[in-house]
Amino acid sequence: MGKKINLTEALAGMAEHWEPRTVAELNDYDVRLVKVKGAFVWHAHPETDELFFVLSGRLRIEFRDGAVELGPQELTVVPKGVEHRPVAESEAHVLLVEPAATVNTGTAGGERTVPRRLL
Amino acid sequence: MGKKINLTEALAGMAEHWEPRTVAELNDYDVRLVKVKGAFVWHAHPETDELFFVLSGRLRIEFRDGAVELGPQELTVVPKGVEHRPVAESEAHVLLVEPAATVNTGTAGGERTVPRRLL
What angle is formed at CA A35 by the lines to CA A43 and CA A101, rounded to 5 degrees? Predict the structure, then answer.
């Protein structure tokens, strides 16, 4: 029998921005919750698509050739290998779905890389 | 560059209950949107876990040994091979994530089986 995850409660226990927590596992995929604010680093995931679903606030996903603006109840899939930079002017709460092996900074690496962390 | 999907708009174009529409593709997975009301059939998916995320309304997922009750902002993963029956007393709107090959009625089959359908 499955376990219920309440995202509002999960978010209440999260403080840092840009540090996703894995709230559920779906086969070899993760469902991750993240609080974001400000600009993240440009990066790409050569091996996988990545789903962004905005729960609250607004998220702009910048691409080299444009941007997608997402509000609550809106989602997009960043295709594998496509460079992108997520930006939020104010705090936003976002659900991510991607393979469990996916690293937050992709091929960019650097100081904003965080290990996979369960809620 | 990704395409933006607004779930509120997508739901406005959907009439039938228990007939998921694929609103986005993530590698070989589908993100599906479904309106539900009443009781679905008991079934299982021997090959995959299945994510249920409630957008609005309430959804009860019955198992042979209990049930999980989900409201808005709540999600659960039904483990592969586990028999379950989704039930909604009133209309609820649910986001599903599962492999694109997943059939809505799993191994149960029958008249409520619907083909994969893009939005």
Answer: 50
- Give the global pTM: 0.97
Q: Where are the alpha helices (DSSP H) in chain A?
A: 7-12
d(CA B6, CA B13): 11
Could you tell me the mean pLDDT of each successive run of 10 residues in chain B, 119 residues long?
Answer: 91 96 98 98 97 98 97 98 98 98 95 94
Q: Name every residue in A having a CB less than 8 A away from some CB of B.
A: 1-8, 23-27, 29, 31, 48-51, 53, 55, 61, 63, 65-70, 73-80, 82, 95, 97-99
The DSSP code for A15 is -
Using a CB-CB cut-off of 8 Å, the residues of chain B touching A60 are none
Q: Would you say A50 and A86 are in contact if contact means Cβ atoms under 8 Å apart?
A: no
